[in-house]
Amino acid sequence: MKATICKVQFDIDYLCPNCRLHFRLSNDDIPQTRESSVECPSCLESLTVTFPEEFVTFPIKSNNKKKEVKDPVIQKAVMSMKSMGFNLSEATSLVNKAYHSGITVADLIKEAIRNVELSQT
Fold first, then answer.
1. What number of other Cβ atoms are within 10 A of residue 120's Cβ?
2. DSSP symbol at 62
3. Neighbour tally for 114: CB within 10 Å
4. Which pairs from 107-110 meet CB under 8 Å and 24+ separation?
5. pTM greater than 0.70
6. 3-state secondary structure of 12
7. Which residues fall within 8 angstroms of residue 57, CB to CB, at 6 or more apart?
8. DSSP state of 70
């Protein structure tokens, strides 16, 4: 059985020539260009860091995906319709079609169910 890489931990240690502080950059903090500027956390000296040609970095994926903030009215209506027997995708679709700003949860559910009844006739 073959294992797959799920996460790469990568650290680079630096030495500030001004204050002699050792500091470390990890994962997302590591510069992704061949030459970049880094600030010493102790003396705040601006340092230029150059990576050798043979230095290989792995592409770093950010886990900071922006999550879509949904209206709580929509979430409550979808969950209510799901408890009535609709599957999640049906409930989400129906609620999104009937939603408009300022609508209450109860009215949103009524509108979504009315759309189901109209589509069946």
1. 6
2. P
3. 12
4. 108/73, 108/74, 108/77, 109/77, 109/80, 109/81
5. no
6. strand
7. 10, 30, 32, 51
8. P
Residue 51 CB contacts under 8 Å (≥ 6 apart), including other chains: 34, 35, 57
CA 42 and chain centroid, separation: 31
3-state secondary structure of 37: strand
Q: What is the residue whose two structure tokens read 């470390």? A: 24
Helix (H) or strand (E) holding 113: helix 105-120
What is the tens place of the pLDDT at every residue in 55-76? 555 554 555 555 565 788 899 9
Residue span(s) of the chain under CATH 1.10.8 come to: 72-120
**Would you state the pLDDT for residue 51?**
66
Instruction: Assign domain 72-120 to its CATH architecture.
Output: Orthogonal Bundle (1.10)
Q: What count of other Cβ atoms lies within 10 Å of the Cβ of residue 78?
A: 24
